[in-house]
Write a structure and sequence with these properties.
two-stranded antiparallel ribbon, alpha/beta, about 400 residues, Nucleotide-diphossugar_trans, 10 strands, Glucosyl-3-phosphoglycerate synthase, about 10% strand
Length: about 400
């Protein structure tokens, strides 16, 4: 059974196994009568051909409280988009598939570029950003949730527990972050969270001193989870990164814009498994290697924005401190895994720690070389101020794509 510990910074909502998924669903169905709930699914076309997404749709088809499902589709051509419309057609809820690579959506991109508003590089961050813009343009949802499309252990209870804290009108929460143990196939997962994020936050505290922001991030049991739910009121002013720093970026924005009492983390699953990224030791532009650099840059930029002064000497010290802290923590993870009958390749994980230590220096150098770099996609408030018709035109573009590719060929 889960514990009931509270850390004092961010409220933790546990699964104490004292209610049922049916009770949560009944409550959410009641809440949804006056607080419409939308789910966002950022998806690659390749995920339509995997094992996870078909089962996710089977579970979602049984969810009665969703007002709309917005699917953002990346890396698809016209035939693949048409296939996606049929693939998601099994959903009984109102749903839409945004073809991010369509000519009409590229016209939307060009309008943004003409206004010097860069929507960022292709990837999950940009996909999510356009989906959020679509939800805001619809103007009919009070709550939006997001999760990935590669969850192999998905159940509809996961969504219910994720959404409940922000859908319940008696709760104060504006943002709910999901957490869970990363255990699959007899192994301890969550390598980037365990081997990079947790130790670097401790190392930063040792090197630059106490920061409320560091304590805030350390309060989250799994800060890199891809599952979160928000009330829609803060969305227009949300600045998110277009790179692998999305999850840390969203938490950082919550820290900047919301009161601590309006943020919570919620236990949404007993087990969780999804597609595992390669480490990519030889190429820092891919896999966990790139992810580690993007996450570090996101943290460094946030600290700098709050007044922290960085230098090469600080980054060298941070690298050494991180390396020692990470190895100490690995001892605890190894023992925890052994006691629970799980496998943990200690040599392999030490090699990953060495890679992350090198990438901390690389991320620091990138930050020092380009301190004015703007990694965030503009807020939708700014987009609307620059072009008040763009969001409505995006709705029309998506509707036109759907109409064109849903029709059977002559």
């Amino acid at each position: 059974m889960a514990d009931f510990h509270q850390n004092g910074n961010v409220t933790t909502l546990h699964n104490l196994r004292s209610t049922t998924p049916e009770a949560l669903t009944h409550a959410l169905t009641t809440f949804s009568q006056s607080r419409k709930i939308t789910l966002i699914l950022p998806s690659l076309f390749s995920e339509l051909e995997g094992d996870a997404l078909p089962e996710i749709l089977n579970e979602l088809a049984q969810v009665p409280y969703l007002h709309r499902i917005v699917i953002g589709l990346d890396r698809a051509d016209g035939d693949q988009y048409a296939h996606a419309l049929k693939f998601f057609g099994r959903l009984p809820q109102d749903h839409v598939v945004i073809w991010n690579d369509s000519p009409r959506m590229r016209d939307i991109h060009a309008r943004l570029e003409a206004l010097s508003l860069n929507a960022g590089e292709p990837g999950k961050g940009r996909n999510v950003w356009f989906c959020l813009g679509y939800v805001m343009a619809c103007k009919d949802s009070a709550v939006v949730a997001l999760h990935d499309c590669d969850i192999l252990t998905y159940s509809r209870e996961m969504l219910a527990r994720l959404v409940y804290p922000v859908a319940n009108p008696n709760f104060p929460y504006q943002l709910a972050k999901g957490y869970y143990p990363r255990i699959a196939d007899g192994k301890l997962g969550g390598r980037v969270s365990r081997l990079l994020v947790s130790p670097i936050l401790i190392a930063l505290k040792k090197v630059i001193g106490d920061r409320d922001y560091l304590d805030y991030l350390r309060s989250f049991r799994y800060p890199l989870s891809g599952e979160f739910a928000m009330r829609t009121a803060p969305l227009p002013d949300l600045r998110i990164p277009s790179d692998w720093g999305l999850e840390i970026g969203v938490l950082s924005e919550a820290w900047r814009n919301l009161a601590p009492q309006s943020v919570c983390q919620v236990e949404i699953a007993d087990t969780y498994d999804h597609k595992h990224q390669p480490v990519s030791e030889e190429d820092t532009a891919k896999g966990l290697s790139r992810m580690s650099i993007d996450i570090c840059k996101s943290i460094f930029r946030k600290l700098a924005a709050d007044g922290t002064v960085f230098s090469e000497e600080i980054f060298r010290t941070l690298k050494a401190t991180y390396y020692r802290v990470a190895l100490d923590m690995l001892e605890g993870y190894y023992n925890d895994a052994a006691m629970n009958g799980l496998n943990l390749d200690r040599h392999r994980e030490e090699k990953i720690i060495e890679l992350f230590a090198t990438n901390i220096m690389q991320a620091g150098q990138v930050f020092l070389d380009s301190p004015a770099e703007m990694p965030f996609i503009p807020t939708w408030s700014r987009v609307h101020a620059a072009d008040p018709t763009l969001m409505d035109d995006m709705l029309l573009a998506v509707a036109a794509d759907t109409a064109e590719f849903s029709q059977p060929p002559d």
